[in-house]
């Protein structure tokens, strides 16, 4: 009997031991599983956050790339002051995403540069001749051509000159004369036309120094390197302290008005921005600036 009791007690102790081992095994197995689940849960949001950051970065770069465009305006030299000092800053204030750069020279030179590949977006010449030539060559958006401004051709002498010139025809009395080269400078073409109609052109050829643009002519007279010159009224007004206007080209000496046309260049990479700039130049606000520089509205 005693032996049986001992055997029963031994069996009960063995069963308890097995139960304890079994429970410990379950806990040991569960621990890594829980850790794995927690790790997966932690990793998933991290991956999601990285994707969102990349997306935001991409959107930012795209926005930066799209918020700025640069256009190049090729304009007659006589427009430089009005453009650089007033009009371009005004336009950029209204269109902060657009940067406007200007290149200024004689209209003939600019025409040639555009023909040879200058990537200008807007062209504004000091005569219709150059605009018409580019338009006929298919290099201008024809429906954007606008005869925006009118100017005058004037005879000038150095400030304080004692030459005593009183009328346009008195240029014949000068010992040295500065004119724009008629081959490429509209002011020179207008001067040739007016002086030819007055019967003076051939008489002064041995006294003429030809400038590559109207600014050169203006500077020669201002520096007294020439006794007289023919420029635009607007140029003379811009240096009123250094040159004196004698007279305008006589009525009838020119075949037509001195017109400044503007247009969008065909195949521009920034058509919308270029058209906006041309439309801006037509506004009353812009026209007021032009008038302050001596221009009048074209027809």
From TrEMBL:
One of its GO terms (biological process) is molybdate ion transport. It comes from the Bacteria. Residues 32-58 are annotated as: Disordered. Residues 1-25 form the signal peptide. Residues 32-48 have a biased composition (Low complexity). Keywords: Metal-binding, Molybdenum, Signal. The keyword tRNA processing does not apply. Molybdate binds at residues 78, 107, 187, 214, 232. SUPFAM superfamilies: Periplasmic binding protein-like II. One of its GO terms (molecular function) is molybdate ion binding. NCBIfam families: modA (TIGR01256). Belongs to the bacterial solute-binding protein ModA family. This is Molybdate ABC transporter, periplasmic molybdate-binding protein. It comes from [Clostridium] clostridioforme 90A6. The lineage of its organism: Bacteria, Bacillati, Bacillota, Clostridia, Lachnospirales.
């Amino acid at each position: 009997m005693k032996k049986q009791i001992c055997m029963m007690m031994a069996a009960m102790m063995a069963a308890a031991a097995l139960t304890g081992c079994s429970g410990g095994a379950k806990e040991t197995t569960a621990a890594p599983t829980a850790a794995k689940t927690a790790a997966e849960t932690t990793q998933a949001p991290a991956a999601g956050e990285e994707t969102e950051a990349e997306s935001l970065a991409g959107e930012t770069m795209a926005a930066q790339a799209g918020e700025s465009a640069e256009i190049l305006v090729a304009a007659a030299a006589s427009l430089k002051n009005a453009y650089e000092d007033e009009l371009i800053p005004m336009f950029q204030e209204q269109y902060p995403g657009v940067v406007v750069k200007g290149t200024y020279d004689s209209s003939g030179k600019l025409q040639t540069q555009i023909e040879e590949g200058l990537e200008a977006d807007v062209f504004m010449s000091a005569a219709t001749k150059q605009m018409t030539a580019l338009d006929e060559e298919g290099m201008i958006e024809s429906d954007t051509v606008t005869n925006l401004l009118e100017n005058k051709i004037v005879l000038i002498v150095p400030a304080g000159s004692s030459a005593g010139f009183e009328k346009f025809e008195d240029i014949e009395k000068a010992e040295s004369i500065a004119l724009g080269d008629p081959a490429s400078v509209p002011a020179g073409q207008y001067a040739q036309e007016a002086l030819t109609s007055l019967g003076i052109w051939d008489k002064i050829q041995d006294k003429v120094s030809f400038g590559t643009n109207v600014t050169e002519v203006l500077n020669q007279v201002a520096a007294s390197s020439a006794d007289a010159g023919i420029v635009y009224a607007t140029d003379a007004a811009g240096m009123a302290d250094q040159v004196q206007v004698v007279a305008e080209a006589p009525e009838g000496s020119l075949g037509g008005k001195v017109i400044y046309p503007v247009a969008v260049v065909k195949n521009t990479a920034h058509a919308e921005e270029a058209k906006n700039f041309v439309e801006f130049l037509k506004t009353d606000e812009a026209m007021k600036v032009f008038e302050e520089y001596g221009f009048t509205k074209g027809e």
